[in-house]
Amino acid sequence: MEEVLGAEDARLFCEYFNVTAEGNFEEASSIPHITGKLEEVAGRLKIDPSAARARIEAARGKLYAAREKRPAPFRDEKVLTAWNGMMISAFSRGAQVLGEPRYREAAERAARLVLDSMRDGERLLRVRKDGQSRVLGFLDDNAFFIEALIDLYETGFDVGYLEEARRLADIVLDRFSDEQEAGLYFTSADHELVLTRRKDPFDGAVPSPVGVMALNLLRLEKLAGVPAYGERARAVLLDVSAALPRAPMGFGSTLIALDFLLHPPVELAVVGDLESSAAAKLFEKIYSGFLPSRVIAASTNPPSEERVSSLPLLEGKGHKGENPLLYICRDYACGEPVDDPLVAEERLPFVSSSGG
């Protein structure tokens, strides 16, 4: 400090940022941190507070310049499909709740990178670095990215994301399934040979890909109207059910999927001009409430035949009028549609709290 700042400024800096000879970290080194007001430090050192603040700012600049001359620590530059999947989900849900288009745009850019550059044919690859993608994706790569695609669909309603999610889900069921016990392995059948193919049902630093994939299948069952997805999800949950009572705190993501299964979700369908201000107000009400178990489909009016065939929630849901309509359903049985955001806000909590 004294070498860079000189004795007087070093003393002021060390007093303010708690840098001591004894240190507060390993090997008597110090991590600078502020615990008091600068005015108090200036008073102890008999320095004018304004002058002390100016000296502190100048000292920070000098120390930063000195640090820049040192070798920088290595950075991890690789792009991981699994972690990007979690990021895409976070940005998608942030766009929903906060109404921030830039969050949706960031999610879509990341999804497009994975779809365009991190696949070998139809199969996801795990890592990308220096412009090269490699290593066949594991269960977490597929599960987290499928979740991301579903979240992206429920944010902007581009049915292409849902179709990609279905294609990847079919690959997971074909290549990662334990045919004997109906669970899911972390590695696929065509990964390099390992001594044993393990399953990964516990949450750790990240959610369990088994729990995430079970929920993906349950959501796809409702959105795509494919009962086989729900059947496989039930089998996956049954495979880990014996361990749940013994350590429930380790199965958060799996318990979320189980809750979705045991308490059938609210199904929401919106039909109309999705780009209108009326639609924006309606979606604001939908996303602002807490509906932990819900799926949502939306389309322009009238829904195209292609969309209806792949999204049964939209079947028979045309409408007349200026404002989009919201249908609130369970098991594809819907109440009277509403076009008033305030009425929608009143009805959505009732549907959520009824629990089916």
Overview of this structure, please?
- This protein has 356 residues and is α+β, with helices and mostly antiparallel strands.
- The protein folds into 3 domains: 2-67, no CATH class; 79-262, Alpha/alpha barrel (Glycosyltransferase); 266-354, Glutaredoxin (3-Layer(aba) Sandwich).
- It contains 14 helices and 8 strands.
- Strands 1, 2, 3 and 4 form a 4-stranded antiparallel β-sheet that branches. A 4-stranded mixed β-sheet has the order 6-5-7-8, with helices on both faces.
- The radius of gyration is 27 Å and the shape is globular.
Describe how the helices and strands are arranged:
Elements: H1 2-5, H2 7-17, H3 38-44, H4 49-67, E1 79-80, H5 81-98, H6 101-117, E2 119-120, E3 123-129, E4 132-136, H7 139-156, H8 159-175, H9 209-224, H10 227-240, H11 252-262, E5 266-271, H12 277-288, E6 294-299, H13 305-310, E7 325-330, E8 333-334, H14 341-354
Parallel strand pairs: 5-6
Antiparallel strand pairs: 1-3, 2-3, 3-4, 5-7, 7-8
The number of helical runs is 14
Known CATH architecture of the largest domain: Alpha/alpha barrel
Which class of secondary structure composition applies to the elements? alpha+beta
- N-C termini distance: 66 Å
Characterize the biggest β-sheet: 4 strands, antiparallel
